[in-house]
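Shipment paperwork, digital attachment
Item: protein structure file
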Amino acid sequence: MQKNLNDLLTQKGISVAYGESVCNLDEITTNKRNDGQVLRTKLGSTIVADFVVTSLGEKLNNEFYEKVLASSLTPNGALEVNEHLKVKGHGNIYAMCDVTNIDEEKTPCTPTEHAKVVKENLIAGCNNGKLTAYKAVMEVILVSVGKDAGVSQICGMQLGNFPARMAKGKDRMAGDTWAELGLEIPVNKPDQCHGSKA
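Attachment content:
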């Protein structure tokens, strides 16, 4: 999959720097447009970028529970949970998403699937019912590159660009996400856009 993605990016005129790491990230504006920023790498290269997105595998933000639930922490700071997503040693506390020690890829689908199980178990707990066990979701990787290209992998099987284009090409799945929450995607009108004048 990585080779296919690299080939696709190269075809689109996008270069990928392997084996590099940015050494001046603390001087860079991230997740917001800032034209002409210069990133310096540890190997001495410079990269000019207008938009920088970090995806470094950030440390878990566990400050709010690390003392209270210290006995349930794994060495990397995650919470140890059972098959019902209950925190080890705390029968009435559930955990979900990135803070759990579940051995699975934490994808955008994970919070929704965890929330369904926690909801069912909270209701069951109030009614002395049977708890639902969480089953990890199928590994699906869809990377769109613009509206007309991408790469896809489902359960380790590569499926080309069609699934990525169909699922993400139009709106990056925003429509599905909003609909699942029972909401409509807001439509910007010229007089509602940030910074526009009526």
